[in-house]
Design a protein that fits this description.
The protein is of the alpha+beta class. It has nine helices and eleven strands. The protein is elongated.
Length: about 350
């Protein structure tokens, strides 16, 4: 569609693979038609498209002398291009209505696509419950959603795109704290995570969790600089829940300690009871032994007493028999008795 208007010309720009044709954010001074090869387009570090032969690129920036909206890099096989400065571009547009119609169709298609992407991005950001505030490398507000304005206690529409960030968020405790965090992010060159700020306005009191990150922003000279994205999350209710949880944890810990003390007291009492039980058992054994000894002694005493009483009842008989035995031993036997013992009878 475009190459047929340049049949009698040779490509006047050659790109090696990976070579940059122009940077995002650069001022545009020419448009390009791809004769052969391909170009890769990037927004920041993200590849958004690959275009090939007979494609027109860079024409939109020539209409209003705007900056490049993307970075163009030579594809894997490089690219051979027709370069058209603003005068060449306008001359071809004037002398070739078919070329002009093709350019218009291509530009309108890209505008519709860009508008669709912008609308998707805006709808996504606006529908988020978390607040989002974006600042470019020059300190201007690029995007801010309604959730961020409400969280910061600002009215809807209070901050417009393009306003100076330090001025738009200078007033008030919350906005000022957010501006300080963004400034600290830029100065340190490192993202800040989970910084808590307090927003108070009359009866309105909120605790916000702020996290910052970077995105690549290309300035007018084609230099990559860091823009800042700040996300805000309302943690007021979460903080209350955490405080309630902490209080409950402390209460449970105190009760646990009380239970431990009560358990130790019970263990001590059980030990004392066990010791006393052993003493009682020892005393019981001793008492049983004593009772057995008493019974044995009583029994022995009773036996002795019975024997004594029996002896007292027959004292003469017992003494008489002893005396008879003694007399027999002491008295000499008669001859007759003697012979009788020997078996000799009178």
């Amino acid at each position: 569609m475009f190459l047929e208007h340049f049949k009698d010309r040779q490509p006047n720009a050659i790109l090696e693979p990976g070579e940059v044709l122009f940077h995002q954010g650069q001022r545009a001074d020419s448009a390009y038609i791809i004769h052969s090869g391909s170009l890769e387009l990037f927004l920041g570090e993200n590849q958004i498209a690959v275009i090939g032969s007979d494609e027109l690129i860079g024409e939109m920036a020539l209409f209003e002398d705007e900056k490049r909206v993307a970075t163009a890099v030579g594809g894997p096989e490089g690219a051979r291009l027709f370069r058209l400065d603003k005068a060449d571009f306008e001359r071809v547009m004037t002398h070739s209505p078919q070329f002009a119609i093709g350019v218009m169709r291509k530009s309108m298609g890209r505008l519709r696509g860009m508008n669709s992407e912008v609308l998707k991005y805006k709808y996504t950001v606006d529908s988020m419950s978390d607040g989002v505030v974006t600042m470019d490398s020059g300190g201007a507000v690029v995007a801010v959603n309604d959730a961020a304005l409400v969280m910061l206690g600002l009215g809807l529409g209070a901050v417009s795109v393009g306003a100076r960030f330090d001025q738009a968020f200078a007033a008030g405790e919350g906005p000022g704290a957010l501006a300080a965090i963004v400034d600290a992010t830029l100065k340190s060159g490192a993202p800040i995570r989970n910084r808590i700020i307090t927003v108070t306005a009359g009866d309105y009191a909120r605790r916000l969790d702020v996290t910052t990150s970077f995105y690549t922003d290309i300035d007018a000279d084609g230099v990559s600089r860091n823009g800042v994205i700040a996300s805000l999350r309302d943690v007021t209710e979460l903080e209350k829940l955490r405080e309630a949880e902490a209080a409950l944890t402390r209460e449970l810990s105190q009760r646990h300690q009380d239970l431990q003390r009560a358990y130790m007291e019970i263990e001590t009492n059980n030990s004392e009871l066990a010791s006393n039980l052993k003493k009682v058992q020892s005393l019981r054994v001793m008492a049983t032994t004593f009772v057995v000894l008493v019974i044995v002694m009583v029994a022995l005493f009773s036996i002795n007493l019975g024997a004594t009483e029996k002896g007292l009842r027959h004292p003469r008989r017992r003494i008489g028999r002893r005396q008879v035995r003694r007399r027999r031993r002491s008295r000499p036997e008669s001859p007759g008795q003697f012979r009788g013992r020997r078996g000799i009878h009178p």
